[in-house]
Write a structure and sequence with these properties.
The structure is a homotrimer.
Chain A (H helix, E strand, L loop, with lengths): L5 E10 L10 H11 L5 E5 L2 E3 L5 E3 L10 E8 L1 H14 L3 E14 L3
Chain lengths: 112, 112, 112
């Protein structure tokens, strides 16, 4: 598997409590979907504080909402593969932010 | 609240020990400022290792500086809202790196 | 030390178990290389779940691979310094994804 030098990065922002329709943690559902559809890779990041569309302040601190910390899932692949993935990610998610950025791939795997 | 498809992402890099002028953890102060000023969202990420302008190697390892791990705060909104926020973030911070990137918003909240 | 307003961000994706040739955790080796070569900064992020070229699903969950969580190292500097660093990062790493993005530097350190 190779990646072109001009790729796209999809980033999906939501809360740790968010679930897919079948009750699975949303970040797991997204990563599994990315793998099933043959994407080059996916990375989940979890932060200690944040807020999103609901304007709830997610935080790890005691006495605040401790269970819904911010999650970002990053998926990088060829632009057309990312474009094909977007409707599937939209079908999987509801209240989230999805962004797309251009990235240049310098290396993927062992090749130079 | 809606977001245009062409947005900007502000990223602010500093150390976990950094405080705002009123003694609050800087990442909290930035996230609260972002919410007060009506930004679409903010996400804090914390890493296990890093260094910045001071060239101190932040690390979670025992026997090194364990208290000043790297923090990134990400804020995404319309370019003019990000531009209006920048002076306020500058006023809140001192020794940090602030970057700005273009991002395309694919979805924000429930809308398609 | 100053940074130009147009900088580049290098991001290196791999697993927490990856080591440099001398047996050091790869993220440490990369951060130390970045500091030795005078880069403006480096930040390590570690995620709870992900997969990459090997298609192994890295996860923090019990009963799955718990030891090879995804790592991202981000390095930001002037484009020509990033370009000069790339061969050194390639020499240090094998099975990883390396991307490059343009970022605008709004502030670096104390200056306005």
């Amino acid at each position: 598997m190779e990646l072109p030098s001009q790729c796209a990065m999809l980033r999906i922002f939501f809360g740790e409590d968010d679930r897919s329709a079948d009750g699975r943690p949303l970040h797991e559902a997204i990563v599994i979907k990315a793998r099933e559809t043959g994407m080059a890779g996916a990375t989940v990041l979890r932060g200690p504080l944040g807020f999103g569309r609901s304007s709830v302040l997610h935080t790890a601190k005691i006495l605040r909402l401790s269970q819904d910390l911010p999650i970002i899932v990053e998926i990088i692949d060829a632009p057309e593969k990312i474009d094909a993935l977007i409707p599937q990610i939209k079908a999987l998610t509801r209240n989230c932010l999805i962004t797309r950025e251009k990235v240049e791939v310098i290396r993927y795997g062992d090749e130079d």
